[in-house]
Amino acid sequence: MKIKWALLTVIFTIITVLTGCEPLMVLDPKGPQAKTQADDIMLSILIMSFIVIVVFGLLIYMLVKFRASKQSKDYEPPHIEGNPIVETICVGVPILIVIFLSIMSVKSNYEVEATPKGYENQKPLVIYASSSNWKWHFSYPEENIETVNYVYIPTDRPIEFKLYSYGPITSFWIPQLGGQKYAMSDMITTLHLAADVSGEFMGRNANFSGKGFAENTFNVKAMTEAKFDEWVKDVKKTAKPLTEKKFNELLKPGHVGQSTYNGTHLEFSPAPEGEHAGHHHGSSKSNDNKDHHQMSNDSHNESEHNH
Question: Are 93 and 187 part of one and the same domain?
Answer without folding.
Answer: no
